[in-house]
Amino acid sequence: MPRHRVRFIPHSPKAFDGEAVIIKGQWSCSPQQITDIDQGVVEAHELANAALTALGKSNVARTPAYFSWFGPESGGPSASNLVEKHYRPVIDSLKAPSVETAFRFSPEPMFPPNTVTDKSLVFGCSGNNGPCADGQMVAGVQSATATEAAVFGTTLLLLCETFFDKTRPTNQGRVKQWQTESAIGDMSKGFVLVHETQHMLIATGAGERADDLKNPFFGFLDDRCEDCYSATCCSRLSAAEKVKNAQNYAIFALVGILFTGNLVRTVGPWGDEVSCQSPPG
């Protein structure tokens, strides 16, 4: 099906008014990369639906999975808040792009008129250039925050060459590693997109946008990443910190696939090999 130039249809109060992909100029995506983005969105929806199923259980706040990533129960968020502010927005707000656009940096950052708005989500592909040059990033979001407007006038999701690596596992591949090692390892495309959606103010709403918190255990308990991406770090945060760390939402969704029927033991010890390849949103 051909991609149309303009399509602005609201999905929900928190949804974007259109999803665009850059095909010309800086950060343009190839047809194959666009296909991979579409598949990543499908995977992200699979993870979000698993989280929604888990959160629909009456005793979810008393399970080890909930305790590990959002608890303890007395200090953690409500299941209904996680549903409405963080997982349903992945389904309502993260859509495959159907609008084509272009982007240039000079003489000033600019999209062509009538292709995106300040409420659009734009996918870009950086290759190994710009912020992706060091090879350590997988994806990053430039979004408005509670106090600042979006730098590029819209929500931009930039995908690095590593996101499109053909060896990147599927959700099921990650589940198998979690079953055997309790390790995140190389993240699936869907895992990355669930994480990045938590950085988008339009998706989560005011007061709910998550960041990539610094790893308070780096250098003595957890040497994997300076930011809090590993399961070891994410599980050791306080309840107030867990709800503000984007990786916690992605891990709970991954665990949700495995434990949809029974949210059993998910508390360490962690055999945690994690790629430190997700930048601050």
UniProtKB/TrEMBL annotation:
It comes from Colletotrichum phormii. GO terms for molecular function: metallopeptidase activity. This is Lysine-specific metallo-endopeptidase domain-containing protein. It comes from the Eukaryota.
